[in-house]
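quick one, two chains, predict together pls
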Amino acid sequence: MSLSDVCGPVMIGPSSSHTLGALRIARFVHNLLGRTPEKVHFHLHASFARTYRGHGTDRALLGGIMGLNEDDPSVRDALTSAKANGLEFAFQPDDLGETHPNTVRIEAWFGSLYQDVWGASIGAGMIRITRINGVECLLSAMYPTLIIINRDTPRALGKILECIEINVANLYLRRINKLMNTALTIAELDEPFSPIKLHHLASLDVVEEAHYVPSLAARP
Amino acid sequence: MTFTSICQLANLSGILLHDAVLISDMAENGTDPDDTRHQLSSYLSVILEEAELQYGKSHRTLTGLTGENARSLSESHPRYVSEFTYMAMVTALSISESNASMGRVVACPTAGASGVIPGIFYALQKRHSIPFDRLLEGYIICSGIGNVIATHATLSGAVGGCQAEIGSAAAMGSGGLVYISGGNAEQVGHAAALTLKSLMGLVCDPIGGYVEIPCVKRNAVGASIAISCAEMALGGVESFVPFDETVWAMQKVGASLSETLRETGQGGIAITRTAKTWLTEGRHDNE
């Protein structure tokens, strides 16, 4: 932990795990979708399910899904502003099985786009993204992150890494569907990724979809 | 990072204690001291701004269990504590109640204990007219003390109980206060150790799990203990056990605390009859 981690960050209260962490998970989904969704469902597990109103977790999640920063005072009014902006949302307690008690599953829709992300708030505002569209992972969201659906063929990863160029801190590769011949590759990078490079990456023959999520530590 | 190693670095290289803190962080985490100073400066600015905005205000908190304590105390006058301590207590209540109503806080060291350090620093600014740059040097000392605790124990109530939150915040604030008052490195260490020892074993027992009772009032008490211990250290009172060993002891105590006493809302005052009655009958969350 560095000195600025100990004496920060600036955040909207009351709880680093129930508001700050929750907001960060939802903001990850906002960034993954590249926008505020039209419709969002929050499935709240265990501790999140029991206390989400008294802790302001509901507002923090809505604030995050609308892309608000963690120190933005309007997080407090997120319920009202979500309604005003026509965002269709629902909170539902859910049993997500054997997982961290502060876990939320977020389903977000925008037109034909759909993302299904599980995230856990593990304390002190730190989060772990544990599942993206059915594929298990373990992301801190503190790195610039690439989420790629690619062909499950020889040399696919090689082509992707060659295109990325930037040093990769952590790499996940899972087969999604043997029959469909698809795999999910997640790369946590040491440096931010530019939109032009994302365009190049997305146009590779082995890449079907490429999404980029900036580090949560970076300020827009 | 240990407190001893920071002091040794300052002694051997003839630099000031707060610079030794920044350089120790650079050595351990690769941070740029200028960047860290800048970041901490922005946090301290928010602390002082929010203290100014929230001082003595009423707050509509999420559960309504707190929200009038800062206003109530601010409308009174100090009978036994100094004007300085009184102001620190009102500020600590104000920030904690703002936190409980989804206000903006600096999680220094945590959201639940975010009132203690604003209490001390706002009182220093208002009552003693300490300039910002000097306050920042003290804030850097706070961050160093907090870092020692984070490294060798914990700042999380869920892991170490309230001693890790209010205890740490008070130890950080006490050391910072001594430094700003002209105390030397040894006195800073004594103040932090005396404070942490005074709050050792404090359990984390929030009613319903919400950051309101007893958290809000404990912030004010934490600030006053920090000030008392700083007064003792400046007056030559020494902690027999050095700060680093106190942190070691705190970690041991935290590990031996039952889970019911670590932010689960299942022990301490959280399971009293009054608490249970409120949870079953009185509770209606503010929309």
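The beta strands of chain B are 104-106.
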